[in-house]
Automatic annotation (TrEMBL):
<feature type="signal peptide">
    <location>
        <begin position="1"/>
        <end position="25"/>
    </location>
</feature>
<keyword id="KW-0732">Signal</keyword>
<feature type="domain" description="Fibronectin type-III">
    <location>
        <begin position="774"/>
        <end position="870"/>
    </location>
</feature>
<dbReference type="InterPro" id="IPR026341">
    <property type="entry name" value="T9SS_type_B"/>
</dbReference>
<dbReference type="InterPro" id="IPR013783">
    <property type="entry name" value="Ig-like_fold"/>
</dbReference>
<protein>
    <submittedName>
        <fullName>Gliding motility-associated C-terminal domain-containing protein</fullName>
    </submittedName>
</protein>
<dbReference type="Pfam" id="PF13585">
    <property type="entry name" value="CHU_C"/>
</dbReference>
<dbReference type="InterPro" id="IPR003961">
    <property type="entry name" value="FN3_dom"/>
</dbReference>
Length: 971
């Protein structure tokens, strides 16, 4: 049932601000907040505040009055929640109070749920002043991460109450007995008690003192005293209290899943230290690892140094009860069997023994261990305080392995196969995860080679270091599987199976790996032995293919006649196999039935120049009904593919093949022809290759094998050289290496290549017919708008230059600041060029020579030409429209002018005109187009010229000009 309470935020704030009465101020001892997400699509959580109150006479009235507790949900809302339960413990001196509410969050996120209570009980020594510790509020919080990937998630619950007693001078330990129903990993760390600042806001209590400040030494007398928590087990130990009294401290339990922290709980607990002669009892834990389905019967023993009776109790998820001994909520239980602590909770004479009894089952297997917190307290005489000790029974419960795995060879329509069988898996389950279902799966692994694994009963899964690869997953109900994936004959295959149990959180997990099933496929098919290129041609290529008869098959084993079907695919690793030959055979001795010369066909030419080809052979036998049935197929074997990379006076060869045998650690032969693809070919070297599937050789022209003649000579960039290689190989499988004659020799196709030559020609020497400005008259270049630069160069030579020049490249830049760009390519032997249609002669040039190999020389010397500018103005003009001297313009033949800017002033100094143009032609008008009257005007002209320097400043001309109108004509 969902709890809804109508209390306003104002009332909550008022509750936090009211000064507590005496009865309200001395009752809170310890507490924590836990949460459970409820099933369904909404983000709805059951939130429980568990608070421990002082029920002694001084605090009973305050505890009774604590009928409500405020809970802040971390999303900006809060609620005052009624008390839902009150159970008395420790001889009615304390009570466990529960405040439970259901809250729905709007969306994913991280939320800090907190609660503040008024107030702590009095007398806590490490919250000074102890006499006023009842003036400090009590605050705890829990952080949850709401994420769709977490599905239904619960925080851990603490099954051991946070109230204990200790003795001065004796080591004290406490364990919260935290249990996470989802199997998430838990980690522990110390924290400090908190108080509320204002409502939902909190702070660490600044006056808090570490407990070791109340210690003199450890229990064994050594120093200093320690106060710590084990991050893995949660054992919180103080070694050792040095002063009687009441102490509070806090710690955090972190919840982790798949390496991500998904929440944390703060527990604030209280310890009472007494100074008395009673000694604490002792209890021994254990760590066990068993297969799910095992009946656990573990004896637990405790003793007391004083010889007093002791009571042994257990806290943990498998017991399915909370710290009150009441059943856990159904969704936190571990079904179906409950663990029991036989004789637990009964006072016994020591040495006392109880039996932890748990009939486990498959659903309880998980990656994280189950921790049972064992607690023993003594039963001292009247007036003495009972002391406690803790220990942990850690139980690792793993899923059982798949049993009786076997493997045998078989055949399918797809080819060779291995049949796996195993016994029905005994530990399958279906687990509901949110709205969907997941089932136990069996993961099948395979690797080449058989390697025993040292059995480790508690090691689950299959470590990658063993070299196994997952090949498939099948439902746990399966008992067989046929493996057809890329199996090679003559290879041993090892199989193992691991079961994966699904579960919420970290529940479930992997089983122990099965025993090994190892099998070597028998040799029931032929074996490829040769794919060699006889002829290299685009249309009439030829390849010889050879194979063996089935090595493990005798003539009478299967029905005759038999048939080979040779299939071909294009490419080194081609898979587009088509049948190119069918050969019937009775496997009679001396019959040439395992060789075929492939010449292609009219519809399928064999282009050995452009392609490698891959072959395989299918083997058929005659079944009892008379039809041919495929028994097996060989591995594919390709021709050797040769490639070349020309370099400076050398050629680098590389070759490869995709074959079922190994060409590693063999001697390969390299052949070269200086006379073209028709030979003759000379063997020039032997290459021993190792450890690689791609092989290389650099030919510099040397012939290292002179038995067939010495053809050593430097390679020329003017010649083409043709090559072929012969590889040698052998099968690595010992049986095949014996049965198949080796080495397996195969030729590549013929490949021709021309070396490069990167030697540069010498740079030419460049000359330019430039203008002589001093010799030009004012009328020179009059009215000329197009110009030509004439260039000539002279080739040069040197001992380190390539003399084979086939052309030149001329580079041009308009300005001296430019990087010249290629202007034109000129074939040799021409050594001149006229750069015409120029608007100015200004510009820079250099030329390079180009060798027959396409190598360009360094630049020649750089030559530049500059313009000879000229601009002269008159001092009178007559804008009267008679077509003579109508504009103010430069006198005859302005040269290399790019632009002109004019500013005109009248005799009063006022600007009457301003403009710019490519050339000056002012008609004697003002800037607004009005004719100016006759008279004297002053001008400033800025002229920019098309010269070599891009940054050359404009020439500024200043003077006067007379405007004459009204019938005046000037000739």
């Amino acid at each position: 049932m969902r709890l809804v309470y109508n209390i306003g935020l104002f009332a909550l704030c008022l509750l936090a601000l009211l000064r507590p009465t005496v009865s309200q101020a001395t009752h809170v001892r310890a507490g924590e907040i836990t949460t459970r997400r409820l099933p369904g699509p909404s983000l709805t959580y059951l939130i429980t505040l568990t608070a421990y109150y002082d029920e002694s006479p001084k605090g009973r009235d305050a505890a009774t009055a604590a009928t409500e507790a405020p809970i802040c949900f971390g999303d900006g809302t809060s609620l005052s929640v009624p008390r839902s339960g009150r159970v008395y413990i420790n001889g009615n001196t304390s009570s466990v109070n529960s405040y439970t509410v259901i809250h729905t969050y709007a969306g994913p996120g991280t939320y800090v749920i907190g609660s503040y209570l008024i107030n702590r009980n009095v007398g806590t020594l490490n919250l000074p002043p102890a006499a006023s510790s009842d003036q400090l509020s009590f605050y705890v919080s829990t952080t949850i991460l709401i994420n769709a990937a977490l599905q239904v998630n619960s925080t851990p619950v603490m099954l051991n109450p946070p109230l204990d007693s200790a003795r001065v001078g004796q080591k004290f330990c406490h364990n919260p007995a935290a249990f996470d129903a989802d199997g998430d990993s838990l980690a522990y760390r110390l924290y400090r008690p908190q108080a509320t600042v204002s409502g939902c806001r909190s702070q660490i209590i600044p006056s808090y003192l570490d407990p070791t400040q109340f210690s003199n030494a450890k229990e064994d007398g050594s120093s200093p005293a320690t106060f710590s928590i084990d991050p893995r087990t949660g054992d919180l130990c103080w070694d050792a209290p040095g002063q009687a009294g009441q102490f509070n401290f806090a710690f955090i339990i972190e919840e982790w899943r798949n390496g991500v922290k998904i929440g944390e709980i703060i527990r604030d607990m209280q310890l009472t230290v007494v100074d008395q002669p009673n000694k604490r009892p002792l209890i021994v834990g254990a760590e066990i690892c068993v297969e799910a389905g095992t009946l656990i019967q573990q004896a637990i023993t405790a003793t007391d140094p004083d010889g007093q009776r002791v009571i042994i109790r257990g806290f943990g998820g498998p017991l399915n009860v909370n710290n009150d001994g009441l059943p856990l909520p159904p969704d936190l239980r571990i079904p179906p069997e409950f663990a029991r602590l036989i004789n637990g909770g009964v006072a016994q004479a020591q040495p006392a023994t109880v039996t932890f009894n748990w009939q486990t089952n498959c659903n309880q297997a998980r990656a994280e261990p189950y921790d049972i917190t064992l607690k023993v307290n003594d039963v001292p005489g009247r007036g003495a305080v009972s002391l406690v000790s803790f220990a942990t029974l850690r139980i690792r419960l793993y899923a059982p392995s798949v049993k009786n795995l076997t493997a045998r060879p078989t055949a399918t329509t797809a080819g060779r196969a291995i049949q796996l069988n195993w016994s029905a898996y005994s530990c399958g389950r279906v687990t509901t995860l949110g709205a969907g279902n997941d089932t136990t799966q069996l993961i099948i692994y395979r690797k080449e080679g058989c390697t025993p694994i040292q059995s480790q009963s508690c090691t689950t899964g299959l470590d990658p270091s063993y070299g196994y690869q997952e090949i498939t997953r099948v439902p746990y109900t399966a008992t067989s599987y046929i493996d057809t994936s890329a199996l090679r004959r003559g290879v041993s295959y090892s199989y193992r199976i691991v079961a994966r149990n699904p579960g919420i959180g970290n529940n479930g997990g992997f089983s122990v790996v099965s025993t090994e099933a190892c099998l070597e496929l028998p040799l029931l098919a032929p074996v490829m032995t040769q794919v060699t290129v006889d002829s290299t041609d685009t249309q009439r290529g030829q390849i010889t293919v050879r194979w063996t008869r089935p090595l493990g098959l005798q003539p009478g084993d299967l029905g005759a006649p038999y048939q080979y079907r040779l299939q071909r695919a294009t490419g080194l690793t081609g898979t587009d196999f088509v049948t190119v030959a069918t050969i019937n055979t009775n496997l009679q001795a001396g019959l040439a039935d395992t060789v075929y010369v492939d010449k292609g066909s009219s519809t399928s030419a064999l282009n050995t120049t452009a392609n490698a080809y891959r072959y395989r052979v299918e083997f058929y036998y005659t079944a009892a009904g008379g039809g041919l049935t495929r028994l097996d197929v060989t591995e594919g074997a390709s021709s050797v593919r040769l490639s070349a990379a020309p370099a400076q006076r050398q050629v680098t060869l590389s070759w490869q093949a995709s074959v079922p045998w190994s060409n590693d650690n063999q001697v390969h032969d390299v052949y070269r022809s200086r006379s073209g693809p028709n030979g003759p070919f000379n063997k020039i070297d032997e290459v021993r290759v190792s450890g690689t599937a791609s092989y290389t050789y650099v030919d510099t022209g040397t012939d290292n094998i002179v038995v067939d003649g010495n053809t050593s000579r430097v390679l020329s960039a003017d010649s083409s050289y043709c090559y072929r290689v012969m590889t040698r190989g052998t099968y690595t499988d010992a049986r095949l290496a014996v049965a198949v004659r080796t080495p397996l020799e195969n030729y590549s196709q013929i490949l021709c290549a021309t070396p490069t030559d990167t030697t540069r020609p010498c740079p030419p020497r460049l000359g330019l017919d430039s203008l002589n400005c001093a010799s030009l008259s004012p009328e020179s270049l009059c009215n000329q708008t197009s110009f030509t630069n004439k260039l000539r160069w002279t080739p040069t030579s040197g001992p380190t230059c390539d003399p084979n020049v086939v052309g030149y490249k001329l580079y041009y830049g308009r300005y001296e600041q430019d990087t010249p760009a290629e202007l034109v390519s000129i074939p040799a032997p021409t050594t001149s060029f006229e750069h015409s249609s120029l608007s100015t002669v200004a510009g820079c040039y250099y030329v390079t020579a180009v060798s027959r190999s396409g190598v360009e020389s360094l630049p020649s010397n750089r030559v530049c030409n500059d313009a000879c500018p000229l601009f002269v103005l008159p001092n009178v003009f007559t804008p009267n429209g008679d077509g003579k001297n109508d504009v103010f313009a430069a006198l005859s033949c302005p040269r290399f002018v790019e632009s002109v800017a004019l500013v005109v002033y009248n005799r009063n100094g006022s600007k009457v005109y301003e403009g710019s143009s490519a050339s000056l032609a002012w008609p004697g008008k003002s800037s607004d187009g009005t004719d100016l009257p006759s008279g004297l005007y002053y001008y400033q002209v800025s002229v920019r010229y098309a010269v070599l320097d891009r940054a050359a400043p404009a020439q500024v001309l200043k003077g006067w000009v007379q405007i004459l109108r009204e019938g005046v004509s000037m000739r």
